[in-house]
Amino acid sequence: MSRWNRLVAGCVGLLLFGAAVDRQAVRAEEAVEERRPRVELGIGAWISSGETKWAHDASSIPGLGNPTSKLTYKDVGTNVVDVVGKFWVTPRIFGRLNIGGAGIGGGRLIDDDYASGQRLISSTASDIQGENMWYLNADVGGRVKEFANHRGYVELFAGYRYWHTEHRAVGVGRLVCDPSFFNCTAPLPPAGQTVITNTANWHSIRIGGSTEYRMTRRFSLLGTVAVSPISIIDNKDIHHLRSDLKQNPSLSMVGYGFGADADVGARLMIVRNFYLNVGYRVWWNRTVDGHVTFHDATGSSQEFPLTEFQSFRHGLTFGLNYAF
Questions:
Q1: What backbone phi and psi angles, to 5 degrees, belong to 125?
Q2: Is the pTM of this model over 0.85?
């Protein structure tokens, strides 16, 4: 068992133990007036893995398929540091700011190319050795329902998310090569040479709701669900080995689509106003329309439909919160 899995298992065990100890005490407890904190601060981690993939249609060029190319970046074990602050403007209205970031190391890029009839003519694999991911969520919201006997609440919110991911792929390994299209005996670049740098920036409007339900005086269940009816992707690729393409960027993409995210978990009050949280988080964005522009080294450009751009990240969360 990895150290991260042992840590999460320990947190879950502590939550369950606290719930069991507290269950009998809450039955004898009478409802008392609750004093709501004005500020809640938290720090934690998101043990996540992610995937970014995109495809385009250049079948207007004779002999090429639709999609013409599909690139999939998969990273593993990205440990995100996550901080959050929630500030009550009035007893019912709040603002919230959430920032997270991590270095990305480990993973793989698969680059597939297709001829007409969707015949796979090339497939290569590269290692991912960086660079980074970070995000910012800024929300405003309000409490719309209080459960009886201070059992919990329902809140609604709306806000903005900026989600930046950069992958640096190094080395090339041939998986499939059609000699009628490519020189399959040409030497490959050194294993440590950077071949593609991909930078994806999502800008999203979020609308959602959160709830907390107290099973006992100390133990609660938490949930947040949000949808992004408008998500815009601004992506740039540098193909470092392509002499026919301009460098920085070689390709640029713009598209719009939608997304969704969810957090579920549990909370244990260790001492008054000090909490331990454990949960699971999922983020997902994808386009419905867009275009990709190839920037030639000569200064000209070609534009093709962007048939897919999708980002997905999920994993365990845990952290500590303090309210005052």
A1: -125, 140
A2: yes
